[in-house]
Every structure is written in structure tokens, then in C-alpha cells.
Amino acid sequence: MFKRLAACIREFKKPTILTLVFIVGEAIIETLIPFITANLVNQIKAGAVLRDVIMTGILLAVMACASLACGGIAGVCCARASSGFARNVRSDLYARINAFSFENVDKFSTSSLVTRMTTDVQNIQMSYMMLIRTAIRSPLMLIFSVVMAFVMGGPLALTFVVIIPVLTFGLLMVGRRAMPAFRRVFRKYDRLNESIEENVRAMRVVKGFSREEYEKEKFGAAAEDIRSDFTHAERIVAWNRPIMQICLYFNMIFVLLVGSRMAINGENGVDVGQISAMLTYGVQVLMSLMMLSMIYVILTMSAESMKRICEVLGEESTICSPADAMTLMKDGSIDFDGVSFKYSAKAKRNSLSDVELHIRSGMTVGVIGGTGSGKTSLVQLIPRLYDATEGTVRVGGVDVRRYDLDVLRGGVAMVLQKNLLFSGTIKENLRWGNPDATDEELVEACRLAQADEFIRSFPDGYDTYIEQGGTNVSGGQKQRLCIARALLKKPKILILDDSTSAVDTKTDALIREGFRAYIPETTKIIIAQRVASVEDADLILIMENGAIVAAGTHSELLSSCDIYREIHDQQTKGGEEHE
Fold it and tell me: Which is nearest to 430 in space by CA: 406, 400, 475, 463?
């Protein structure tokens, strides 16, 4: 885990090392200052001349400035190193997620991935900052202060023999009891973010059913759950301060009582300077221990975040390009040879079973079937969004697993059931299909997708800004923009997964007419619920329970397939019979 995260430091190794160097310098100087101050006190008591006092004062001032400079430089380097480290972790996470197959994405929820890239990264950034600064400074201060205390105070330093074990034990117990609560909190953050994401995405449904109060109560319960756990954890951590204060005051009382007695009696060479130094070193020791306890708590909190981040970084995509990948797609022919598929190895039944299908390049294929019949599963195997569990899927006569993924997916344009537009202008969204497309090509694609007319009705035309998720355009408009975006790709295979459901039958027919004129050599697969959307296709597939139960042209299926005939009659004659 640490090795994987350490790889994210990369170009920020230099500021990390500089932080450590300057922290060591700061610690050494800070432990020497009480030593010199104690000698100055003893010199003044012994009747030192003013010149010696001034010289020592100048030395102390220089050391204080040097300590301040070391601390300041260390702080700047630490900030640069920790923020850069967090940036690299976040970038690596995002790159890894983008490389995931659908199967990998299914393993993690969207809300969990968002939490890992935000809250968890912030936690490990804080931990890294603490590790390279405080976690180095505190042990050094502790060691140097104890050594100097024995050098200066002799028997008085025995107070640390009692204080350090007591304080260490108390702080470790605090951290140990707080750890489970912090772990629970991060798991609950996922559920909280999931509730937020679901509520925001479904805001229209929530308002349509007047469920605002219910959603607020649900969110409030999740937030209260997190507050309760955090309060419990913070209540435990709050014991840090009283434990430290008890040890601090014990040290002060011991040093003042025993040290004063020894100084008055002249025992063991203890004088006022030594007592002053012992008080300072006592504070330094206790503060170092307290900081170490804070580091322990923060690392405890971050351990879960580190684990969650490493889960993503260590996740290998189940789909990747082979070593000797094919970089040329000959044509848009598609073959399914004995293909079976299920989304999870644990699934009890297949989504597709023993599919045999052969489509020539340039054909238009319609796919009809009820919900859950396997239509979407079928087409998702073509661009390798998933891999077949059994059998072989071929495109252009080549097993899809032999293609370079960019080449395969570059040759397949897919308009999914859930049409998605990104924040930006209409032009920017369309150029996802072809970044180099000219304005004329954009307009032509939109005309074919029957989108040009409504785009021009907007005040800003093709420069109209699309809100996040395309909320400022209708469902039908969104579908047509997504189809235009796919056309700009000029693919060898075009897949429309129920992508014209929100447009009227006339517009649907015009879009299909545009396909025949604009991309005649492209293989077109149209998944639809309406018979009218596929009746002029070269081949129509009827799917049921993950299998192709019938295949043929419109006229062939009307005469031979009861399922197709029933669907056709319901859609074309249902209204007349009802009348």
C-alpha cells in the first residue's frame, strides 16, 4: 500500500527531502536554545559582564531567526510536496478509473469513487504533510530534548522516566479507541454521497411526487449518523489534552519542588539555569508526545482512506488491448459464434445464451424485445464494453479481443439508452464525435439527425451553452444531438440503443433516411420498442430471455413469428380495435 502511494510522489521528491532537511535543522536549533539560555542565566547570577550578556543575546537572536527560517522554508516545501502528492494521487485515480471496463466500474459505486477522489485524497494529503514535517520534527524534538534534559538537569531528568511511559500509554489508548469510529465514518460518507447524488439526479421525480420532506429526513438521518460517530470519536480524542496537561503540571511541580531544593542545597550542580532549562525541555517533550499522538490519530483516520485509494489504484481493468493488437478494422461485419454472457461470475443465469449471429458490413439490423431480453447486453459486447463469457465476437472478421481498444471503439459509435451531454456549447458536445470537424460538417450531421432546425431556434445557435446533464434541452433534442455526435465519428458500426424513443415517428423516419444517405457502408444496429423504427431494416432480430428467438425481414417475421406479429398488431391496430 505504502509503496503504491509512494510512487505518486514523483517530481515532488525534492521538496519532500528539503522539508526533512530543514525540519532537522529547526529541531536541533530549538533544543540548543534552552541550553544556551540556561548558561546565560547562570552567567548573570555569577556576575557576568554586560558584553558577554549582549554576545549571548545576539547568538540567541540569530539562532531564533535561523529556527524561524528553517521552519518557514520547511513549511513552504511541505505545502508544495503534500499538495503535489495529492494532485498526483488524484490524477492517477482519475486515469485508473478512465481505464476501467464497465465490469470494474460496476464493482465501485459512483458515490464511492467520488468520495475516494475527494475526502480520501484530502485525508492522505494531510497525513503526508504530517509525516514529512510533524512526524519527523516531533520524534527529533523528543529525543533531543530528553538528551539535553539529562545533560542539563541530571537527576531532575528522571521525571521523564515516569511521564513519558504514562503519557505514551494514555495517548495510544485514546487512538486505539477512536480508530473504529473513524473507520465507520468513512464508510458512511459513501452512503451519504450516494444519497446526495441520487437525490440531485432525480430532483424532477422527487418534486413530481412531493417527496422533498422524505428525502430531507433520509439525508438528515445519514448526516446525523455521521455526526454521532464523529462526536464519539472526537470525545475520545479530547482526552489527549487533559492527559497531557496532567503530565505537564506534574513535571513542573516536580522540577520546581525538587530542583529548588537541590539548587538551595547546592546538590548535583543544579542551579536556576538548569531549572529553567528543565521546565522548557519538559514542555518540549510533552508537546512532542502530544503531536505524535495527533499524528497517530490522523494516520489512523487516513489508514482507511489509503486502503480505499489503493483498492482503486490496484484494480486492473478486466478489458485491455493485447500485446500484438490489431490496428486496422477492415469493415463493419459482425459475427457472434456461440456467445454466452453474464455480468458477474456469481450470477446464476446468463444475460445472453448461445447467440449465433452474422451481420454483413453495411446492413441495417433492428433488434426488438421486452425489458431484460438482452438487447443492450448484445450490443455492448461489440465495442468490448464487456467481454463474452463464452464464445467469440468478431468485427471485420477479427476477434474483438485482438483489437487495440482505441481502434475498436473508434470504429464503433454507440448512442446509449441514457443520452448524456456535457457542460459546454453544442459545438463542443458535437465535436466529441470528431474533434477536427468543421462547422459545415457539424451542420450536416445535425441536419441528418434532424437537430439543425431546433438548434437554430436558440438565440446562440450552435454556440448555445448546454447545462450539466443537458437539463436545458428536451429528451428528444438530447437524443438527436447524441445521434449527430455519433454521425460525426463516421464509424464502421453505428449502434442506436433505443435512441429515438423520445422523437416522433416522422422524425424517426427522417433520421433513418439520413443514415441511408450519409453512411450507406456503415453497419447500423437499431434497438427499438417501435416496429416502425425497424420495419425497413435488412434484418430484424427478436430477443427473449437472452436468446435470439427469431430473425428475418419485416414481411418474413409477420408471417412466421407470433411474437413479432403480436407486437406489430398491438402498435398498429390496437387503437382501431379499442375504438
Answer: 463
Three cell numbers, residue 347: 450470477
Q: What is the pLDDT of residue 408?
A: 93
Residues 79, 83, 89, 91, Cα dihedral to 10°: -150
Residues 227-262 pLDDT 10s = 887 788 778 777 777 877 787 777 778 777 777 777
Residue 421 near residue 469 (C-beta atoms within 8 A) = yes
- The whole-angstrom separation of Cα 215 and Cα 211 is 6
Residue 318 has pLDDT above 50, yes or no: yes
Query: Contact at 8 Å (CB) between 111 and 194?
Result: yes
Angle between helices 159-201 and 135-153 (to 10 degrees): 170
Task: Count the alpha carbons within 13 Å of 54 in the hemisphere toward its beta carbon.
Answer: 3
State the Cα–Cα distance between residues 199 and 217, nearest whole angstrom. Answer: 12
Residue 501 pLDDT > 90: no
Residue 522 is predicted with a pLDDT of: 92
SS3 211: coil
DSSP letters, 98-112, are HH--HHHHHHS-HHH
Q: Where does the pLDDT of residue 147 fall: very low under 50, low under 70, confident under 90, or very high at 90 and above?
A: confident
Of 430, 426, 420, give the one whose Cα is nearest residue 475.
Answer: 420
Q: If you write DSSP's letter for every residue of 250-274 in order, what string do you get?
A: HHHHHHHHHHHHHHHHTGGG--HHH
- Residue 548: phi, psi to the nearest 5? -85, 110
Question: In the predicted model, what is the mean pLDDT of the chain?
Answer: 84
- What is the spatial distance between Cα 576 and Cα 555, in angstroms, rounded to a whole number? 21
pLDDT band of 266, cuts 50, 70, 90:
low
Cα(53)–Cα(36) distance, integer angstroms: 11
Distance CA 82, CA 33 (A): 30
DSSP state of 366: E
For residue 158, how far is the Cα from the chain centroid? Answer: 51
The string of DSSP letters for 435-458 reads: TT--HHHHHHHHHHTT-HHHHHTS
End-to-end CA distance of the chain: 70
Chain-centroid distance, C-alpha 152 = 53
Long-range contacts of 428-434 (CB under 8 A, 24+ apart): 429/466, 429/481, 429/485, 430/462, 430/481, 430/484, 430/485, 430/488, 431/488, 432/485, 433/484, 433/485, 433/486, 433/487, 433/488, 433/489, 434/488, 434/489, 434/490
Instruction: Tell me the C-alpha distance between 301 and 124, whole Å.
Output: 9
Residue showing cell 462526536: 231
Backbone angles phi, psi at 331, to 5 degrees: -160, -170
User: 466-477, pLDDT tens digit by residue?
Assistant: 987 777 888 888
* Grid coordinates belonging to 346: 456469481
